[in-house]
Amino acid sequence: MNKKSYFNLSRCKMNIFSPAYLITREDSRKDYPYSSFSNDNYINGYGDHFPRLYRSD
Prior knowledge:
Blueprint: E1 12-16, E2 37-38, E3 41-42, E4 52-56
Antiparallel strand pairs: 1-4, 2-3
């Protein structure tokens, strides 16, 4: 692969994307991401982690 095709993260700023609809507000997982699965059951969530946003300046 050509070295110029790599994405250079050293010049980027990273933020965690965590709007209210992605956060669990109850139970033992309060303030964690609203997961897609719980105990092998699909619970209509979004994922098991918050997405990362990279921005280059």
